[in-house]
Amino acid sequence: MENTSMNGNMEEEEFEGIEERDPERNPMNEPLLKRNRTLSSNPLALVGAKVSYIESLDYEINENDLFKQDWRSRSRCQVLQYIFLKWLLAFLVGLLTGIIATLINLAVENISGYKLLAVVEYIQQERYLIGFLYFTSTNFILTFIASILCVCFAPTAAGPGIPEIKAYLNGVDTPNMYGANTLFVKIIGSIGAVSAGLDLGKEGPLVHIGSCIASLLGQGGPDNHKIKWKWLRYFNNDRDRRDLITCGASSGVCAAFRAPVGGVLFALEEVASWWRSALLWRTFCSTAVVVVVLRAFIELCHEGKCGLFGEGGLIMFDVSNVAVSYNVMDIIPVAIIGILGGVLGSLYNYLLHKILRVYNLINQKGKIYKLLLSLSVSIFTSACQYGLPFLVKCTPCESSSLQEQSSSCPTNGKSGNYKQFNCPNGHYNDLATLLLTTNDDAVRNIFSTNTPHEYQPYSILIFFTLYCILGLITFGIAVPSGLFLPIILIGSGYGRLLGIIMKPYTNIDHGLLAVLGAASLMAGSMRMTVSLCVIFLELTNNLLLLPITMIVLLVAKTVGDSFNPSIYEIILHLKGLPFMDADPELWMRNLSVGELIDVKPSVISFRGVEKVANIVEALKNTTHNGFPVMDDDVEFEIVKLHGVILRAHLIKVLKKKWFLKEKRRTEEWEVREKFSWVELAEREGNIEDVGVTKDEMEMFVDLHPLTNTTPFTVLESMSVAKAKILFRHVGLRHMLVVPKYQVTGVCPVIGILTRQDLLAYNILSVFPHLAKSKGREKRN
Amino acid sequence: MENTSMNGNMEEEEFEGIEERDPERNPMNEPLLKRNRTLSSNPLALVGAKVSYIESLDYEINENDLFKQDWRSRSRCQVLQYIFLKWLLAFLVGLLTGIIATLINLAVENISGYKLLAVVEYIQQERYLIGFLYFTSTNFILTFIASILCVCFAPTAAGPGIPEIKAYLNGVDTPNMYGANTLFVKIIGSIGAVSAGLDLGKEGPLVHIGSCIASLLGQGGPDNHKIKWKWLRYFNNDRDRRDLITCGASSGVCAAFRAPVGGVLFALEEVASWWRSALLWRTFCSTAVVVVVLRAFIELCHEGKCGLFGEGGLIMFDVSNVAVSYNVMDIIPVAIIGILGGVLGSLYNYLLHKILRVYNLINQKGKIYKLLLSLSVSIFTSACQYGLPFLVKCTPCESSSLQEQSSSCPTNGKSGNYKQFNCPNGHYNDLATLLLTTNDDAVRNIFSTNTPHEYQPYSILIFFTLYCILGLITFGIAVPSGLFLPIILIGSGYGRLLGIIMKPYTNIDHGLLAVLGAASLMAGSMRMTVSLCVIFLELTNNLLLLPITMIVLLVAKTVGDSFNPSIYEIILHLKGLPFMDADPELWMRNLSVGELIDVKPSVISFRGVEKVANIVEALKNTTHNGFPVMDDDVEFEIVKLHGVILRAHLIKVLKKKWFLKEKRRTEEWEVREKFSWVELAEREGNIEDVGVTKDEMEMFVDLHPLTNTTPFTVLESMSVAKAKILFRHVGLRHMLVVPKYQVTGVCPVIGILTRQDLLAYNILSVFPHLAKSKGREKRN
């Protein structure tokens, strides 16, 4: 977001005179949903393609009497159960993700394989129009299935899901994101969309699928049919769910790229907001299981038992057969690829941002428009993929120079290089090799090494241009879609193109340059480094490529960062998800939390033993999720802070009607009789559903046992920068602000800060002058 | 530490009756230095081999008026200078570490190469005694040089240095650890010790060397001859130094294993306590530079220009030539290796712990004893390495079955398999192949693939036993020594041995089993996972090995963790370095910070404008490093907390004699006239060096502008567990405890907590009953 706010500010400097102007009012920078410009923002965001009410998650440890009692009473055996189950779940997440990923692969390879075989048949018979109609209509139907499911049954399944998972792991609840519906639609939709030959990958969806599996396992099944296994109750809290979903996300990446270490690193570098050694260790376990499952299936399918699936081993795009020999001078072409990758990547981000805004306008018009959009993209894609290869000339197979390849030229089967298409025997159509195939095979073909003369520059140029267009227009449609593969396709295209141009200056193989091009574009758009490096290492199985890959990534990321934020940050901002960066902006040092509190509505607090009417009124009139609880000491006239109570727990009290006739403190057994900590962990219920009679309104509730007695606090003089560090690093939901002086009888809490209050975007809307202060750079 | 405290507790349960018994009084669990059993512990620890006074580092942002003024006044150009320099330093750290690592390799390979060539010469002439004397005396002299340097000039250079770096990055200052002396001694000592054939590696020392280079670059040179380059002043703070040292540590690992991604991950998983994306990114840059430097040197030395150095490429122990084919049933031998690795690893930790205690007793007797210890280990090592190969029978070269190897058998040059030693022509001595060579070559030979019949079980058994003994007795001597290589040697020995035993049951190559054995023992002793996995991947260049490596690591770590903590944690505890774990113990939830404060001496605070005499008295009578500063509002009789002032800044005030005749607040320009923020960043000076006259004692100081106005606070009701999370995650030095009620005129700070107060070990010494409470397991 750093750059976003800087852009906003740069524009503002042009309008220096207009003092009242909002710093981010350039429409292109605004989230898609309008917010009111106060510190308590409208908590709505786009989750998938659905507008949802979002709230924060409780990653903080809630130390109320009931939970404390539970921890104390857990026997050694129960602790072991918990630990065992934690590992079992990590294992199961890996297992199921591996199996589902293989099934998706199987389905995609078979559906699109048989489709392509039929098309090749038509072409060989020179029945070009029938071939076209067959190709287009199959793709149309597949897209229709994927799209109708997404539009009607699970809007949250549209898109990659990674931004939402990122937000969830940052502490934002994204409702309906991990349900059984979503999982089902994501699996079927992903199979449909990928088999339809659309320019999208199954990588992002697999990450989402992994997370769904993890969440469903953790809660014991779909929302309506949960298994009530008593061991599972230990996982009924946001912290453990977060850990499980991290495992799921890394398993997903691992399954997508068959890259176990890369999967762990991707989850930790890009998706998760908090890293812990213990978690590193558990995600690692999940990905190990995924790899074992994948390997087992590959072996099982090796003898053609799985239809057209089964080519290729654990390494997806193997380039290990090429001898990597490069010298110091090769750093120049490598740096050029990096720079171009950075420029193109940020350009891609910029354009995708604009197109997503336009698409959003279309999608808002209704379900039918969403569907039409997907289907027109599908028809356009099919037409291009089928029609463009007719534009290029056939190339004769080089039987003399490259003996091994020539023997297998042309291959008309599903996978393999050198497609004959419309060419006479002994010739091949190089563009058909790249277009009329699955996306995975297209990548494999363009990465193919030791084939410097296979592709004509003209074909590669067409390929590159086509996938630039498709990559931009396909991402926003209402089907499960990943970003990785489109970017790899564009990147490999320009990498190979550069290879042809720079041929006189470098000896690096064109296949390797395609790999480097793909890496550079990914770094330029997604801005990952270490995880990307490891993923590429594991994808291509060539360790000697590592140093140049690292340089390419470094250069591309640096160049990209100087233009705009990463694509995920752009999408998060666009969707209005309140994602919290790790580092505060520098201007936040010049603002104290006291000043923030001043522009907020005053805090509503309860007494330790409170009247029911007051509670109901507070819950109905506000949307606050946490309320401070105070204790009066009548004798000494002092007010003591007891803690913070959550809205969910108050609603539970009202629902259970745990009311007292007189104003008194309860005993421990009274609470435990009424509430179990298991119930307290459930987060459901709405104040509208609670019916309290007039008599009950006059009764009392003892809030003490349900109050979190150890909330985190900051002094009112604390700078917002440091408060944000506390909030983000410890993973808070509510932060109390206490006065820095001591006056008898004054309330010891002067305000509560939440995630929304600490977002740069929201603060700047109230204090626009701050963005102007000097030194906006973050001190990394 | 979890397990340490549990052990302590288990013993206690046996003595249930003795209530007052200290929970950790079993002498084997105590740090080497005695502490007084109060919450303010004696801040002494072993740094290297030197007892040092340790204090905490200021990783928290100090927001006093002067620093704030500096941030605000930094121009855009200065911010760019800072960012540019940050990257330049990361680049230079990589460059210099790469160059020095290459020089060390060059020196080691040449010294030990020529030494071994001469020995082989003597043996071929059958002058065995002369050969022995030559071998032993050369090793003796080399050890003597390494040891005398460590003992006399830089005791901090002894050992691996990794525990101290770990503590530093956790927030503990380790004095004299990163000086020019230490760097020099570490380089020369490491060359000497490794060339002397001692059973130690250059990996740990290289990590320390990288960190020294980073620290020296950051401060502009050695302590006495700093370059006063004005750009460097931005780096004169603990936060930036920490980041630089992280870069240095990862460069060191990268240089040691030629593993760039592994280096980054090792630094982040094992060494650093805080991870940030930005840092990940910068360490990655450093390691990329290291790899480029290493590669350039390897190419330069390829034609024998560097003496005996130059064999081998970027991959140290290449096993990529072996076809990895394993099936599901191979999981059993793999699991056995993992389990054995875990058991042996924790046994190794246990025994090393005991031996280090014994060595400490010897070392405490004086320098001459340290020296004698090193020299006797050297003589023992030489005698074994030279003598043991005579015990085994010569093996004839298998010219029939393995044609490629046989053609080069025997190799008597420095490196290579199949040494002739004392055998007739056409025969080789397999134990000499492993012992009479450099450690790196020994690893390469035992990892050698497709050679199932090269080693006799008897030879491997001798090798394994010898290195078990050497690995235990060598680590604690006063030379720079790394732990990685000894563990790899032991592990590869038993891996190969298992390969011979399990031959009927598995097809996995013996060389690969040796690799897996080494990995399992490292996981069993050091308990790393992802970083170890990547390091092994990069060491051996065989990606298909990854799934089984992961399983081995997982099993070994799990088994090891059930016995004792990792070797680094044991060493940290032994040295008395107050390392703070990421996760609090569960019993800490049952204690509030208020209770901790009660057992501490009451806090000493200053008024905003304070009398000089009071300050001098407080500084002289306490060792506190932070004092709360209060403001009285006489009119309303309220006390306001202004912030916390550091001892270093108070001493600066006294030294500069910035005294006021009357009690008044100063203007901003008055402070800035006297102090610059650059001076304030220096951390030097002692209260003993300050001379204040009697008249001056009656004068006043305005502490406001030097006070950090935004200290982190917790309420007294906060649980210690959550306070520790705050302390550790945000990286604090002082945490103020504030009351939870409001009473006019009462001091708004009731205590200060520091690192020592929050260590489990220290708390348990005051509240021994807590360790008994149930549920001691951490909730990971």
TrEMBL record, chains A, B:
Membrane topology note: Multi-pass membrane protein
Boundaries of every CBS domain copy: 707-773
GO molecular function per UniProt: nitrate:proton symporter activity; voltage-gated chloride channel activity
Location of the region described as Disordered in the Swiss-Prot/TrEMBL record: 1-31
Keyword Repressor: no
Biased composition (Basic and acidic residues): 18-27
Keyword RNA-binding: no
Subcellular location: Membrane
SUPFAM superfamilies referenced in this protein's UniProt entry, alphabetically: CBS-domain pair, Clc chloride channel
Spans traversing the lipid bilayer: 82-108, 128-154, 279-298, 331-351, 458-491, 543-560
One Gene Ontology term, aspect cellular component: chloride channel complex
Keywords: CBS domain, Chloride, Chloride channel, Ion channel, Ion transport, Membrane, Repeat, Transmembrane, Transmembrane helix, Transport, Voltage-gated channel
One Pfam family of this chain: CBS
PROSITE patterns: CBS
Protein family (similarity comment): Belongs to the chloride channel (TC 2.A.49) family.
Listed PANTHER family: CHLORIDE CHANNEL PROTEIN (PTHR11689:SF146), CHLORIDE CHANNEL PROTEIN CLC FAMILY MEMBER (PTHR11689)
UniProt name for this protein: Chloride channel protein
Species assigned in the record: Trifolium subterraneum
Lineage, broadest ranks: Eukaryota, Viridiplantae, Streptophyta, Embryophyta, Tracheophyta
